[in-house]
Specification:
Elements lengths: L4 H4 L1 H5 L5 H11 L3 H18 L9 H10 L6 E3 L2 E3 L3 H21 L6 H18 L8 E2 L3 H7 L20 E9 L2 E10 L2 E9 L8 E5 L2 E8 L2 E7 L3 H12 L2
Antiparallel strand pairs: 1-2, 3-4, 4-5, 5-6, 6-9, 7-8, 8-9
Helix pairs in contact: 4-7, 5-6
């Protein structure tokens, strides 16, 4: 059973949001609670990994020019026969409008295919993988039978994930659960690979949020692909070649 404090106090402690007394109490709790201690270590490891990932990307000059050209022109203030510069409040209004338009435009500008989006997705899937490794979180339905796992998702998702057992290829099905990736509820199919666990996250494919590419974060590998209107992302501490093999099994007819 998961300790309640891991849900209510752990992240506040990690973010230094507890007062001195609250922090001291939680540290005493950590001495006797292996669940909180394990989850704190996993969260700190993920935070360190995220801090080393370059998620910032500068918007291209073409986007800035497009936004500026779409903004209404501020009328010049005249005094006699001479024009004066815009008033300070006009410059502030223009800057605010430019900033807002840049944010909105940048979020829509080829975001799905941009490396920053893929890095964000990678971090989210690794985070979900780490959460699943906590006691009692790996699977909502535990079964090696795909005909048991697949019906479990009925009514819980708006799509049917392709649940398949690849035991003959070295990837036995363990079970499945619901998870959240990129703000969406997704299916998580759990497989074994020798002594490793592999999570395969499945969601509806969206043109604005395509899952693709592969990489690694602090010893965890991930690879993402599309098939039949669905997005897939496999995550594990197993070898990258193992994930590629599992990907090909899913892509096979």
């Amino acid at each position: 059973m998961t300790c309640e404090l891991s849900q209510t106090r752990l992240h506040a402690y990690l973010d230094n949001e507890l007062d001195a007394m609250g922090a001291a109490e939680f540290e005493r709790h950590l001495e006797t609670c292996p669940d909180c201690k394990t989850q704190l270590a996993a969260s700190e490891k993920l935070r360190k990994a995220l801090s080393q990932v370059q998620l910032y990307e500068r918007a291209p000059a073409s986007l800035r020019s497009k936004i500026q050209s779409s903004l209404p022109k501020l009328p010049a203030t005249t005094h006699g026969s001479r024009s004066t510069s815009p008033a300070p409040w006009q410059r502030l209004a223009l800057a605010a409008a430019l900033l807002l338009a840049a944010v909105l435009g940048w979020r829509q500008w080829d975001g799905a295919n941009h490396p920053a989006y893929q890095q964000t997705l990678a971090a989210a899937t690794v985070d979900a993988h780490l959460r699943s490794m906590q006691p009692g979180h790996l699977a909502d339905v535990v079964s090696t039978d795909q005909h048991t796992v697949k019906p479990w998702f009925d009514g819980r998702l708006t799509f049917a994930p392709p649940v398949r057992d690849f035991a003959d290829a070295g990837f036995p099905l363990i079970g499945g659960r619901l998870d959240v990736i990129d703000g969406r509820t997704v299916a998580a199919l759990v497989y074994g690979r020798r002594k490793h666990i592999v999570n395969v996250f499945v969601a509806k494919a969206e043109p604005s949020a395509a899952w693709s590419g592969s990489g690694g974060i602090q010893g965890y590998h991930w690879t993402a692909w599309q098939k039949d209107g669905l997005s897939f992302c496999a995550v594990s501490d197993a070898a990258a070649a193992d994930l590629e093999q599992l990907k090909q099994l899913f892509l096979a007819p």
